Amino acid sequence: MVLCFFSVQFFGQENVFKVYDAKGKKSSFAKMSKTSLNQDVVFFGELHNNPIAHWMEVEMAKFLLEEKKVTFF
């Protein structure tokens, strides 16, 4: 029973979200992140009680802060 639980959890994480570009073509989180580097403003939408959306917001923020070499006082 435990083995089944872990395998479902492992394989269930493969396609938890999809990313599309401005033209509606399938993209990736990495491409979206790199494209965001060239923008003046990046908006984060809010989906309450959605852990995947919250995770994506944190990962995007961390990526942008690292790439832009932003520091806080």
Verbal overview:
- The chain has 73 residues and is mostly helical.
- It has one domain (19-73).
- The protein contains three helices and two strands, in the order αββαα.
- It has helices at residues 2-12, 29-36, 51-67, and strands spanning 19-20, 26-27.
- The chain has a two-stranded antiparallel sheet.
- A hairpin with a 5-residue loop joins strand 1 (19-20) and strand 2.
- The model is unreliable at 1-10 (pLDDT under 50).
List keywords for this structure.
about 70 residues, mainly alpha, 2 strands, about 50% helix, about 5% strand, disordered N terminus
Helix-strand makeup class: mainly alpha
The rounded Rg comes to 16 Å
Q: Going across the biggest sheet, name each strand in turn.
A: 1-2
Approximate strand percentage: 5-15%
Tally of helical runs: 3
For the record, the count of structural domains works out to: 1
- Rounded mean pLDDT is 78
Q: What is the general shape? A: globular
Listing every helix as H and every strand as E from the N terminus to the C terminus, the arrangement reads HEEHH
How many DSSP-defined strands? 2
Poorly predicted parts: 1-10
Major beta-sheet overview: 2 strands, antiparallel
Q: Tell me roughly what share of residues is in helical segments.
A: 40-55%
First-residue to last-residue Cα separation: 50 Å
Brief digest:
The chain has helices at 2-12, 29-36, 51-67, and strands at residues 19-20, 26-27.
Write the SSE topology.
Elements: H1 2-12, E1 19-20, E2 26-27, H2 29-36, H3 51-67
Antiparallel strand pairs: 1-2
